[in-house]
């Protein structure tokens, strides 16, 4: 792959990270455009944080190469650190400092002092809607506020690229939505956002995304592309009782490509709507009561479930 690294905020080529004999990042290649919101999706242990740590220059790769803001992830880690903001999974705010004291602390770490620090502090308080809490102890803030403060601290030096590692983990849905609104605001100002999450629904917020599974990228694209490319066939929603028996029965049918539980229904991928009749017949033979079978529009979660099941079968 030959890339003009300046066109991209991030490039990664054949990246591998091993811990002993265990491969946490397995031959990952991707690019992130400037100003993009790029989502890194995957279950716990998929290798998201490890990849981010390599990009931030905290961890050296076992092999492979990459650039961040045009700089080499192996040889120019110190320069990279001045151009990026990093919000780690257990973001490192000082609980016994006030909101403004935390901002000042992180500002000084990044060489932001005096008038510029005052301006950046005002900007962060405004952005995160923390003005009225500026003198509160950080440890006393609710999780949603802490997350916004951590985002502000990661941006005190006006980085070009933000790496956010599960920034919305552990907060309520309203705070998660508010946090995503902040991410949009930041991206509109030209900042590239590389964000990891294990909440599948958050993928819809990203311009483009990669799905990581056991260290490998198993899908890459925009939400629309992923839905189009990977659900080949017809998605049905099936309500039937008992549900587990229905799942097993459908799983054994040759016309059924995928079955997954989706709330109180089963999501079933078949070749065409004409297959509904054979589904009904099979379920009735097994004495399973069918409430409803309806065509459904695939969500990204359907796509991810299908892809992960596919990857598991290949493994
Ligand atoms: N320093 C380390 N030493 C050994 N194994 C590690 C280390 N860091 C991460 N791992 C392992 O690598 C895998 C990927 O971890 P991680 O990148 O944190 O995944 P994610 O962020 O997607 O949950 C996990 O199985 C984890 O246990
Ligand atoms: Mg992680």
Which structural class should the secondary elements be placed in?
alpha/beta
How much of the residues is beta strand, in percent?
A: 25-35%
Low-confidence runs of at least 5 consecutive residues = none
Helix-strand sequence = EEEHEEHEHHHEHEEEHEHEEHEH
Which small-molecule species are bound to the chains here?
A: adenosine-5'-diphosphate, magnesium ion
In which range does the helix fraction lie? Answer: 25-40%
Q: What is the number of E strands?
A: 14
Q: How are the strands of the largest sheet arranged?
A: 6-7-8-3-9-10
What radius of gyration results from the CA coordinates? 23 Å
Global geometry: elongated
CATH architecture of the largest domain: 3-Layer(aba) Sandwich
Number of helices: 10
End-to-end CA span: 27 Å
How many domains, as an integer?
Answer: 2
Q: What's the CATH H-level superfamily name of the largest domain?
A: P-loop containing nucleotide triphosphate hydrolases
Structural features, described:
- This protein has two domains: 5-222, Rossmann fold (3-Layer(aba) Sandwich); 232-297, Alpha-Beta Plaits (2-Layer Sandwich).
- The protein contains ten helices and 14 strands.
- The radius of gyration is 23 Å and the shape is elongated.
- The chain is α/β, with parallel strands linked by helices.
Q: How are the secondary structure elements laid out?
A:
Elements: E1 8-19, E2 22-33, E3 37-41, H1 48-55, E4 63-68, E5 71-72, H2 77-83, E6 84-87, H3 99-109, H4 114-127, H5 143-154, E7 161-165, H6 173-188, E8 192-197, E9 208-213, E10 216-221, H7 223-230, E11 234-241, H8 243-251, E12 256-262, E13 265-270, H9 276-285, E14 289-295, H10 300-314
Parallel strand pairs: 3-8, 3-9, 6-7, 7-8
Antiparallel strand pairs: 1-2, 1-4, 4-5, 9-10, 11-13, 11-14, 12-13
Helix pairs in contact: 3-4, 3-5, 5-6, 7-10
The structure holds adenosine-5'-diphosphate and magnesium ion (MG).
Magnesium ion binds at residues 48-49, 89, 165-166.
């Amino acid at each position: 792959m030959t890339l003009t690294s300046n066109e991209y905020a991030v490039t990664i080529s054949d990246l591998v990270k091993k811990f002993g004999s265990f491969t946490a990042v397995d031959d990952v290649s991707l690019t992130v455009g400037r100003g993009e919101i790029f989502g890194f999706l995957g279950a716990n242990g998929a290798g998201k944080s490890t990849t981010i740590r390599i990009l931030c220059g905290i961890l050296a790769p076992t092999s492979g190469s990459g650039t961040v803001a045009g700089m080499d992830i192996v040889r120019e880690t110190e320069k990279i650190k001045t151009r990026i903001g990093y919000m780690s999974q257990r973001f490192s705010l000082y609980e016994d400092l006030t909101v403004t004291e935390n901002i000042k602390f992180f500002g000084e770490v990044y060489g932001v002092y005096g008038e510029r620090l005052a301006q950046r502090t005002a900007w962060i308080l405004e952005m995160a809607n923390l003005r009225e809490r500026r003198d509160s102890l950080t440890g006393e803030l609710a999780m949603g506020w802490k997350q916004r403060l951590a985002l502000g601290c990661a941006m005190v030096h006006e980085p070009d690229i933000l790496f956010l590692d599960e920034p919305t983990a552990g907060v309520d849905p309203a705070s998660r939505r508010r946090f995503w609104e902040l991410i949009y605001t930041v991206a509109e100002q030209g900042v590239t956002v590389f964000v990891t999450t294990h909440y599948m629904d958050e993928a819809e917020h990203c311009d483009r995304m990669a799905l990581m599974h056991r260290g490998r990228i198993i899908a890459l694209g925009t939400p629309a592309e992923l839905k189009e490319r990977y659900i080949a066939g017809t998605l049905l929603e099936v309500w039937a009782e008992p549900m587990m028996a229905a799942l097993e029965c459908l799983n054994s049918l040759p016309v059924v490509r995928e079955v997954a539980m989706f709330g109180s229904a089963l999501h079933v991928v078949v070749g065409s709507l004409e297959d509904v009749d054979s589904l009904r017949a099979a379920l009735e033979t097994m004495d399973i009561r069918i409430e409803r079978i309806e065509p459904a529009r695939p969500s990204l979660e359907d796509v991810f479930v299908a892809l992960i099941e596919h990857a598991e079968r290949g493994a």
